[in-house]
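Suppose you are handed only two things: the residues of a chain and a line of SMILES describing zinc ion. What would the bound structure be? This form records exactly that question and the answer produced for it, so the two can be stored side by side and reused later without any lookup.

QUESTION INPUTS
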Amino acid sequence: MSVAFAAVAFAPGLAIGSFLNVIASRVPLRRSVSDGRSACMSCSHEIAAYDNIPLLSWVLLRGRCRHCQASIPVRYPVVELTTALLVAASVLRFGLTAEGVVASFFVVVLVAISAIDIEYRIVPNRIVVPAAVIVLVAQTILAPSPEWLLGAVGASGFLFVAALAYPKGMGMGDVKLAFLLGAMLGRSVTVGLMIGFLAALVPAAVLAVRHGSKARKIAVPFAPFLAFGAIVALFAGEAVLDWYLGILG
Ligand SMILES: [Zn+2]
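ANSWER OUTPUT
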């Protein structure tokens, strides 16, 4: 039954992903996300509804504007597909429940923040701050416990110290993102942060091999790695923690 729900959730997931692309293009430029139809960034031609179908239009147009042939960034179909898969996975894991809704909201926010950080190297306050408040309140109502607030404060405190120690690699945006992760994941945020930091070592190592000492000057966006760790922790955090505590015990 939940597989059917998850399959049904895929389509609205694509639509949400399409909206995230609008957010990712407009929020960093401080433009409104609600007014004005989508237009080609290159020729300003308004995009017709039949050319604005998530995933499908990009494939049919072979990634080019119908009017000026300017290439449409691969970010568009990637964001749409990733969002749809993660929303479907959230519904599959948590069902059509309040938990499933909060988890879906959480993964959607992570996709938006990652897309913006990759393109603009910022974690926008306008997204991360309200999302963190919403998730903290929702989690505390759904499962009353200080765990969510403690997770949020602990994770953001850890990132704050890391950002002081390594100011080029992390910023205050990552600290606020960690607050969001802790509010959602509670104690499992330890798993999310650990996987996020480990994953971020991969590009650091690749850059060091390719560019040697100059690699230190190349900025790598950190939010997508934190988001990746958080998503692993959301779906498998409890299992990883049990396994780890089992080894210790
Ligand atoms: Zn165009």
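WHAT STANDS OUT: The two ends are 37 Å apart (CA to CA). The pocket of zinc ion is lined by residues 40, 42-43, 45, 65, 67-68, 70 (CB under 6 Å).
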